[in-house]
Amino acid sequence: MALNIVLFIATFLTTLVSGAILMLGLPADRPLAVLAYFIGHPSALLAGLVFSVPLLSILAVHEAGHYLASRRHRVNVTLPYFIPFIPVIPGSPFPTFGTMGAVIKIRSPFPTRNALMDIGAAGPLAGAIVAIPVLVAGLTLSHVQKISGVSMQFGEPLIVKAAVRVIFGTLPAGTDVVLHPLAVAGWIGLLVTMLNLIPAGQLDGGHIAYALFGGRYAEAARLIPYSLLFMGLVNPSWFIWAAILFVMGTHHPAPMFEEVPLSPGRKGIGALSCLLFVLTFSPNPIS
Prior knowledge:
By secondary structure, this protein is mainly α. It contains ten helices and four strands, in the order αααββαβαβααααα. The longest helix has 28 residues, at 113-140.
């Protein structure tokens, strides 16, 4: 419990700094200048609350979905571990947003494929329920301006494209939406959802895929890291995720009572999760 609290506080602070950097337009590639500014203006950190609070809320609801579903099926699981990360990287043109997400550790086997589906899908679906309104609210605070010079470009999955079209209509040529930090928090929440839904290993998508297809999905899962290597040609960040899956492996253990069939309702949840993956997927998340 103590470690969970310490990591949460650390993640709150790192995301608070990231949010203040975004709100105030500070130079994210100059960490010493950023540090000096906050030492001289500590109250400026409060500007980051508009980013930190909604982002951590999305992550917390995501993990709460897993936790509650696990407890419902009497699967032994830990409380969430939030993962803090440095808010800035020297030489980087953009903040790293102060977190690498959050995880929970499952300590006992899954009883059935139905339990596996519930636990795997509960996190992404719950997180998306919060992330989408946060994104929409943030877009209403965003603005359109002409593109000039080099800037950070956020990928536009289908769900973001739809929200931008509804709120701003067709953008004039040579313009783009400058995201408010609240919209960035919602966008990151959807990115986390998409990454967790990758259908391999112990990721949420791996749980869902096994629940849907059983051991048959194992052969396809082995191809996922190689697919991510190919996608790394579009955006180098995919190389990192490929490396993570190569280290973690793509194997998924079978539930204790695998012979229990997946219920029709759980198949519907699986289809909804697949749709969410498609709607949130972007081959080039940040450039």
